[in-house]
Amino acid sequence: MTVDHQSAYVLDTGPLSHFARSQWLGVLKAILGDVQVLVPDVVAAELTNGCTQHVHLKAVIEAEWIDVVALDSPEQLAAFAYYEQRLVGPGRRNIGECGVLALAETMADAVAVVDDRVAVQVATKRGVTIRRTLGLLCEAIRKDLLTVPLVSAIADDLMKDKYRLPFGPGGFARWAEEQGLT
After folding, report:
1. What PANTHER family does its record include (predicted)?
2. Structure pTM?
3. 8-131: which CATH topology?
4. Which of 50, 53, 59, 114 is most deeply packed, by most CB within 10 A?
């Protein structure tokens, strides 16, 4: 789904963490442009808690272009509870996605940036606008912000960090062409 007029991108832990670890956080900022970038407090907590083991997360926490939003309104808490019932697994897995989806759902024209397939399916049924990481990268190519070789390098670096993508190393260009995304 292409979004022309969004008020904010609401990002999940996964894309932020992997872009930071792969040294591509600045490129992510450039892709998102001048639109406000938000993380819910639960994502901020995941990032902060992970800093002791993953030093690259400090760059995300200190990024001045990312604002933290507390989920505290009745609407946000109700949406969070809805997603929590459907997505949270053992060890509180997917709690960040719940926060991202709740925040995006309760904001006008917000776009949730998540890659988890089940989270995307659940949120889409509730009318949340979703962008996956690869969608953002392909859109950046179409807008002439990035090139196919650069996105291929980014994708390869993300995969070195165990980021799951629907192709193997060196496979972005072919995949994007097959999908009609560039």
Report:
1. SLL0658 PROTEIN (PTHR39550)
2. 0.91
3. Rossmann fold (3.40.50)
4. 114
